[in-house]
Amino acid sequence: MAVFKPENVEDFYEIGEVLGSGHFGQVRQVRERASGTCWAGKFLKIRKIACSRLGLDRSSVEREVEILQAVQHPNIVALKDVFESRAEVVLILELVSGGELFDFIAEKENLLESEAIEFMKQILEGLGFMHSRNIAHFDLKPENIMLSDKVSPHPNIKLIDFGLAHRFHQGEEYRSTSGTPQYIAPEVIDSEPLSTAADMWSIGVITYILLSGLSPFQGETDEETLRNIIAMNYEFDARYFSMTSSMAKDFIQKLLVKNPIDRMTAEECLLHPWIKPITRIQVAKRNRSSINMKNFKKFNARRKWKMSFNMVLMCNRLVQLKVLCKGSSDPDPLQRQCESDVEDTETKPASLLRRRLSSSS
Prior knowledge:
alpha+beta
């Protein structure tokens, strides 16, 4: 059971600079008054009334807190405290200051597969720990794979953002239509029962991108991306995979499998020859192979540009919404009570995209 403290967070922590922001709140650096230690404070707005769309439902925050309390692992962001007031909940989290893994890699001139594997091992170890406790992340993507710090020569991976995570109970059939299109598994699009195997599909996509600088199913539109996923429409183009080992391709192929039962688990991934080579020949192949750094840098630059563009778009929508609300002389009574929120362009419900697909086919 998640414990929410009713005390004022500012009695225990000094509130510092904003580190990031989203639809329902922001993350700020906070400093513990008793010890002087710095943490990250995740300030989340909670819905004041049930029909409001501005803010998070308290039960969803409670679920995220319970999951974070259950997954204490070196490669998963740690939760220290939770405070609650009338309008918001504040999660005190480990301060992860190293930035995104993909940004860290993009700053390098070159990277051997053996070096990339050290990061993949940490991701898989954190994920395997979650899965052993019947918890799936359901939103694995580069933005949610961070580094503990920028100073250490071998920084720790930290998996973050458990807002879509789910803990499975025996006999339960769970479905979800949320996720970022290019990383979601086919069973999400098809509204089939989900399992931790959906995370393993995302690992396959992330590995493909890491090695080549290409997204395997990315289309011109989200609809095209989803069609490519359902059709299993991807390949290892020699122009982008000329420096990739056959073991790495085999690793990806064993994850980008349509039937979730046939995908490798996190534990099986850690035993795959690409991650854990058995022979000297396998070790030599890894050390001769490298990621396509030139193309990876291009991919990461486009990704960061898209994130910035989406943030500007969201701000513009909010401004337009406020103007419309002020200009309305006789608003609907329901609208007066229920504030609206803009659509998240990075995490579109798969059900919405599926409806678009069926209407356009």
